[in-house]
Amino acid sequence: MRSLFIAIAFAGICSCAGAPYFDLRHPVYMVTEQSFWSGCEKDPAGSRVCRASRLKKVGDGANQWFKSFNKATRPKVVVVSSQEKLPSNLVNEVIHLSIKTGFCSKGSAACYAYGWDSSFSGPEIVFESPPLIRPDLVAHELGHALGLDHIPDADSVMFFQPSNAVMPSDIKAMCKLHKECRLLKLK
Predict the structure, then answer these.
(1) From CA 126, how far away is CA 114, in angstroms rounded?
(2) pTM: predicted TM-score of the whole model, two decimal places
(3) Model confidence at 144, in pLDDT bands (50, 70, 90)?
C-alpha cells in the first residue's frame, strides 16, 4: 500500500507520464542528431550559416522559458553537436534534436517524444522538416519536455497549435511542476 502512495505522489510531479524531470538549477543539455543538419549541405548561404541559423532558432525558443528569471539564477539551456561534448557530471537527461519526416502525428510540424521510437528512448524534440525549426515550435516542444501538456488557451505557447511565445501563465504552470523556481527567483 505504501508503494502505491509513493507511485501516486511521483506521478503528480510531472503531468507527462514517464517523462523526465528536469532540475532547473542545473543546465538542460540538448544534443543535435545528424538528421538535424539535413539540408545544410545544400543551403545557398553555406552549411555554416545554415547550422548557425538553426542553433539560433533553438536557442531563441528555449530561452523564452527562462528569460523571466534573474540573470544570476537563470536556468541554462546548452546545445551541443555530439554526445562527446557533454560533461560527465550531468544531472538532467539530455534532450535530442532531430528531423524525422513522418515521425510525428499527421499534420504536426514537430513533436516531443519520450520512448516512442524503439531506436531511441530518451527525450527527443523531432521536427518534420528543416523549415519547421522555429522558435515557437522549440518553445512548445520544450514545454512538453518540462512536463506541460496542451492547454486550451490560444495565447499560450502550450496551445494545441503553437504560434505564440511563452507567456507569464506558461511560466507559472511550469513553476508549479518545478518547485526550484522559488529558489531561482523571477524578475
Answers:
(1) 11
(2) 0.85
(3) very high
Q: Cell triple for residue 143?
A: 514545454
CATH number at residue 38: 3.40.390.10
Q: Contact 183/25 with Cβ under 8 angstroms?
A: yes
Number of domains in the chain: 1
> What would the grid cell of residue 61 be?
525558443
Contact assessment for residue 31 and residue 83, using Cβ atoms and an 8 Å cutoff: yes
Q: How would residue 3 be classed by pLDDT, with cut points 50, 70 and 90?
A: very low
pLDDT given for residue 116 in this prediction: 59
Residue 5 has pLDDT above 60, yes or no: no
CA distances (Å), origin 17, targets 13, 20, 70, 173: 9, 9, 30, 17
Query: Exposed, middle or buried: residue 54 (CB in 10 Å: 0-12, 13-18, 19+)?
Result: buried
The residues, any chain, with a CB within 8 Å of residue 109's CB and separated by 6 or more, are 127, 128, 132, 134, 137
Q: Which residue range is the domain that position 55 belongs to?
A: 2-184
